[in-house]
Amino acid sequence: MDYHLQTQAVHAGRDDLRELGVHAPPLDLSTTHPVRSLASGRDCIDRLAEGAADAESAIYSRLHNQTVHRYEVAFASMEDADGGIAFASGMAAITGVLQALRVRDMEEGRVRNHVIAVRPIYGCTDHLLSCGLLGFEVDWVEPDQIAATVTEQTALVVIETPANPTLHLVDIADVVRQAGDVPVMVDNTFATPVLQAPLALGATFSVHSGTKYLGGHGDVLSGLVATDATWAARIRQVRILTGANLHPMAAYLLHRSLPTLPLRVIKAQENAIELVDKMAGHPAITEVYFPGFGDSDPTDIVGRQMKGPGSVIAFEMKEGFDAAAKVMLATELFLPAVSLGATDSLIEHPAGLTHRIVSEDGLGSGGITEGLLRIAVGIEYTDDLWTDLKKALDQV
Q1: What is the separation of C-alpha 217 from the centre of its chain, rounded to a whole number of angstroms?
Q2: Which of 11, 70, 140, 223 lies 20 to 30 Å (CA to CA) from residue 247?
Q3: Is residue 317 included in any domain, yes or no?
Q4: Could you give the CA distance from residue 80 to residue 279 in angstroms, rounded to a whole number?
Q5: What is the pTM of this model?
Q6: From residue 72, how far is each of 144, 184, 200, 215, 220 by CA, in Å?
């Protein structure tokens, strides 16, 4: 039976709890697991090494863990995906996707070393693609230039929407159309499955820093990939070989947080919508960036592709870097820290923190200035958040 996403969030990955006689999902911290026989153990290793999602025995926790698998099943159901693969961090998940492209190349006996990407994008993703560590050459393009940039060597198209940190919106279906047979990876961290479904729009991979909204409480580091069964198997093979596994305790915390994901996302979004109008009228701010606000969404992506704008806001300080630095340290409720998606509100300076590793050209083409601040709105009382932010803004 098909349930609403809010119901899925509560019940996904818990189908066997009655049979187990428990109310909360169990936590398996075992690093090794007994086998029923040598023959069955060999079969399990073969199955897991080929990228299977499960086996009779987990054998060894680098190969499989039941607590992690339970959350992967729940996460995949939220993304309406065949497979979910959990990693130790968001960057490990993105690296896993890029390395899985090599697995595909080995299967097909060819090499494709070209990636197309759209800026802005998370700073570490930008650097990973640009630095050449994984052997890919990258073309940074505007969204409408993708079709003209695709070659026979193109392995992947990478986008993030809403983009970090300027909240720039990209039409996923149009990118998929331009990419043709080339897989498209969408960083869905800012939107979450509550607000956006990249796979339903034709994307091959939907990736998340699970550290953000999926974890939701600032206490778990993780990364997730949702994709089809074939790609999921390749990515699991990469995870086994590289050891980038998610720890079972982290998976347990993620699963515990899942039932409140829709509630947290919607409440934080309601707060952000109220704050945006007030921020836009403040004399210390010259520009506010928020999906659907002002002229930021001429093709109605919010409402068509996204169910709502989310809860991250970026804004330009009139007096530039000095004013931004002062405001960031003048708030009391908005913690001056990187990351987002927790229950509390955060404020950070992208050029100096999350995107400091990005090249000057990358910062410029991504619209990331020295006067830009980014706030991740939490679930506090809205008036208290505005009072806190306004007090800081009034100082400059």
Answers
A1: 15
A2: 11
A3: yes
A4: 36
A5: 0.96
A6: 34, 21, 18, 13, 15
**Amino acid type, 161:** T
Centroid of chain to Cα 358: 19
Q: What is the CATH number of the domain that holds 300?
A: 3.90.1150.10
Taking residues 206-231, what's their average pLDDT? Answer: 98
Domain membership flag for residue 169: no
Average pLDDT of span 283-303: 95
If you average pLDDT over every residue of the chain, what do you get? Answer: 97
What mean pLDDT do residues 157-182 have? Answer: 98
Q: What is the 3-state secondary structure (H, E, C) of the chain?
A: CCCCHHHHHHHCCCCCHHHHCCCCCCCCCCCECCCCCHHHHHHHHHHHHCCCCCCCCCCECCCCCHHHHHHHHHHHHHHCCCEEEEECCHHHHHHHHHHHHHHHHHHHCCCCCEEEEECCCCHHHHHHHHCCCCCCEEEEECHHHHHHHCCCCEEEEEEECCCCCCCCCCCHHHHHHHHCCCCEEEECCCCHHHHCCHHHHCCCEEEEECCCCCCCCCCCCCEEEEECHHHHHHHHHHHHHHCCECCHHHHHHHHHHHHHHHHHHHHHHHHHHHHHHHHHCCCCEEEEECCCCCCCCCCCHHHHCECCCCCEEEEEECCHHHHHHHHHHHCCCCEECCCCCCCCCEEECCCCCCCCCCCHHHHHHCCCCCCEEEEECCCCCHHHHHHHHHHHHHCC
- Structural domain count of the chain: 1
CA pair distance 19, 21, nearest whole angstrom: 5
Give the domain extent around 305.
Answer: 261-394
Question: pLDDT by residue (tens digit) across 39-62?
Answer: 999 999 999 999 999 999 999 999
On the CB side of 285, CA atoms within 13 Å amount to: 22
Domain assignment of residue 219, yes or no: no
Residue 159 pairs in a beta bridge with 186
In a domain, 103, yes or no: no
